[in-house]
Design goal:
This protein is an alpha/beta fold and 249 residues long. The protein has one domain (20-246): TIM Barrel (Alpha-Beta Barrel). The chain has helices at 2-15, 48-60, 92-99, 110-114, 123-129, 152-170, 186-194, 229-236, and strands spanning 25-29, 31-32, 45-46, 64-65, 77-83, 104-108, 135-139, 176-178, 199-205, 218-222. Strands 1, 4, 5, 6, 7, 8, 9 and 10 form an 8-stranded parallel sheet that branches.
Length: 249
């Protein structure tokens, strides 16, 4: 009930917020499933048809889908990202994107992959997925814990070991990280850069401008289970970007 109340207040504020034309839209998704489960918050579990309809809307609008390495400054770029690496992405969801030649970025935790938990992608899945030209793998740290909670030794492990493990498994370079729970600080940013990451993705609600925004503090647009096409359209039009002022990090 509390989350529903917050969503209604947020929708009302967004109704009176002006559109924002400039900036790249990087969308954040987690789990795509029709039946809610306990793996993550309900707000991050979208029904398949809702996800399909959102992407089809973007296809109909003929937006420019790109991986961040290929962002074109003279266009508004769209990038779909998935955090955590849920099993339900395999086959139909990723296949749907690939069939439409839509690139996406998966942020994975080696610890979750190795857990053999049926809710997450396993080692075999990741090896198979990494061969797809439209799917790029990024790190979500080694374990799904806030990077700001670690001492220097553990922080180095979270960053370095996850990067190396994913690169060894996929035989591809990993140059992007999504901060678990969006948590980062000055020390984390310094370590991320030293570990060889080029891009750092946050949970801050905003569009990205490569000409002046930090590549290690890239904002994204959070997509929720209640986002009908009207709300989704408002989000990609920037009418929800005011939420950046309430970001903890």
């Amino acid at each position: 009930m509390q989350n529903l109340y917050k969503k209604k207040i947020a929708s009302l504020i967004s109704f009176f917020t002006l559109k924002k034309k400039l900036g790249d839209r990087i969308l954040t998704y987690h789990s795509i499933n029709n039946k809610k489960n306990s793996t993550t918050s309900n707000i991050y579990q979208l029904e398949k048809d809702l996800f399909y309809n959102q992407v089809k809307l973007l296809i109909d609008k003929k937006v420019n889908f790109e991986l961040i390495d290929n962002f074109q400054n003279n266009k508004i770029n769209y990038l779909i990202t998935f955090d955590d690496g849920f099993k339900n992405l395999k086959n139909k969801i990723l296949e749907f994107l690939s069939n439409h030649k839509i690139p996406c970025l998966l942020f994975l935790c080696p610890d979750l992959i190795k857990s053999n938990n049926k809710n997450y992608l396993n080692l075999s899945d990741v090896k198979e997925i990494s061969k797809n030209e439209f799917i790029k793998i990024g790190s979500h740290a080694y374990t799904h814990q806030k990077l700001t909670d670690h001492n220097d030794l553990n922080l180095n492990f979270q960053l370095d070991a996850s990067k190396k493990w994913l690169e060894d498994i996929t035989s591809k370079k990993v140059n992007a990280i999504s901060y678990p729970f969006g948590a980062f600080n000055k020390k984390v940013l310094e370590k991320v850069k030293l570990s060889g990451y080029k891009y750092g993705f946050t949970t801050k609600f905003n569009f990205y401008n490569s000409s002046h925004d930090s590549k290690l503090q890239i904002p994204r647009v959070d997509i929720w289970d209640s986002d009908d096409l009207n709300t989704f359209t408002n989000k990609i039009n920037g009418k929800w970007n005011w939420m950046r002022f309430f970001s903890k990090y």
